[in-house]
Amino acid sequence: MSTISSLRSSVDDLREADRTRMMLFALDNLIWPILLVTFVLFSLLLPEIFTQYRNIRFLLYTSAGLGAITLAEGICLISGNFDLSVGSVAGFSAMAAALFLTEWFPGMPGVAGIAVLLLVGGSIGLLNGVSIAKFGVNPFLQTLSTLIIFEGGILVLSTQSVYGLPASYLWIGGEDIDLPLFRPIPLAIFAMFALFLGMWFILTKTRFGRAVYAVGGDEDSAAEAGIDTNRVVILTFVISGVLSAIGGLLLTGFNGGATPTLGTSQLFPAFTAAVIGGISLFGGRGNVLNSLGGVLLLGTIGAGLVMLNIDPQIIQTVNGIVLFAAILLYTFVQRYRERLLSDL
Amino acid sequence: MTDDGPARIEVRNLQKRFGTVEALSDVNLELRDNEILGLVGDNGAGKSTLIRTLVGLHQPDEGEILIDGKPVTIDGPKHARKLGIGTVYQDLALVDQLSVAENMFLGRNPVKKLGGILPVIDTERMQEEAERILSERLDIHLDPETPVEYLSGGERQAIAIGRALVSDPDIVFLDEPTSALSKAAVDHVERLVEELQNTGHTIVIIDHNLEEVLSMTDRIAVLFQGRVVDVVDSDEVTRDAIVAMMVSGQPMGATESVGESDSASSPTA
Ligand SMILES: Nc1ncnc2c1ncn2[C@@H]1O[C@H](COP(=O)(O)OP(=O)(O)OP(=O)(O)O)[C@@H](O)[C@H]1O
Ligand SMILES: [Mg+2]
Q1: Are A226 and B109 inside 8 Å of each other by CB?
Q2: CATH H-level, domain B19-96+153-262: superfamily
């Protein structure tokens, strides 16, 4: 009798554990149902208009640059770090590449400009990474100083927008791609999806990616397990710099030229999108694909409020409220997770 | 007295300071081939620091480390692993968010080439291996995909032990491997250690349970405030003699001569 009851209780335990896991899975991926509900809500408030091709195109297109910059922030957060400089790196590398193509070496092909852009972004990331990993500078202070330096640097390079860039440079951020049987879709949207999938692949399937999670989860444990944590942190910041620069490239294409303020306003939305997508500020946790959900949620809310003719100034406040709600939600989820885990 | 051939590992005049704390001072110690050496000492005696220095997590301030008679500089755990050392750390060194299998293969995940070029982690192989090592070596059956934060203290410790064996080391360092284990699980680890010795491994084990140490080891090194007090054969020493060395910092002969004053002072220690 006792064996039967112990068997039954262990079966119950198993079910309980499965339920707990399913619950945690649902909580970890909460962004998608939230996005869906938000989208449906705006579709009801704006019948016919909100679900039009034009609106969805706009929503996705305006998300592309932010998407790349969100990834840049996301990978730093997963590694247990912090990057305040993503927006200014996007702006600075975009401005440097634009001047390279128009003033410093006019006539160079667009791809050379892209190479310069990636090099500038990667180098600033390298600077951040080396200071933080090798010299032990606090990531907040380090990236705050690069934020200030390169934000100022943009204006040193140029106080005016730079237009007249080669079409091949603007192509990826600005051109549409003609699809058979469908209306043209901006290339930038495909670029955004490709970047998210690519980063998801790197972070989940490669040694480096798992090392990023390990370092973010517990840096000492990672070091004890034989991971070169300095190398991982430096590489993370280099990738962050490159992704920020790609964000700058996409925004340049969207705007048709490099504007001095192109990246400036991107830091907070990128941060917000990463966090509402469930990337933990404490490192080691989060799925970059869900941060795409965060980007799209901000895009949906932004587009919806614009179409409802709400003062654009209010959008930022709304974004702030969304971030606040997300932080509350994830704090609750984290507590709930701890409780569930302690019950196991 | 000494065995023929050089020691598997020898440390000479090893010194390690943390600020003003002298965690290791002038440590001389030999790890003989195929022996089980116990390291005992009070909290803060320097046991973990010695292990961490031997796997390159700390660089010694002075002194040298010889492996098979050759001086080496060990740059880190990865290098130690290449030299044939597997380690169970006192803090277990697990990453909560990662799975059982990922933790066991942390820093050394097996990879396969996707499409012949792209190196990706061979998750299937990793999970099979993890499951196999845990069940064969430790008789514990866990889903390798479970994040370790879902596991009990004993299960976590088993994973840390399993991880030390993943690289098939010749030398195994165990820093308090049984502190979170039930009696049955401790017995299991004891059998594992014995089996490791029988299959030619050399082992260092740190454990505060002196009965366990006495029954498992061949020799015991007693540390006191960063110094090696004495190294004794396990079957020629009593539990009380070890305790006396641990609290007085005096080697075995000396404790007897100052026995009276020592036993008077030890209750307050
Ligand atoms: N990374 C470090 N930084 C500063 N001090 C340290 C560090 N590691 C160890 N110490 C100090 O060195 C001394 C020895 O510590 P160690 O961890 O080696 O002791 P232990 O013998 O392993 O003790 P326990 O039985 O409690 O594990 C202690 O005084 C400790 O505070
Ligand atoms: Mg210790």
Answers
A1: no
A2: P-loop containing nucleotide triphosphate hydrolases (3.40.50.300)
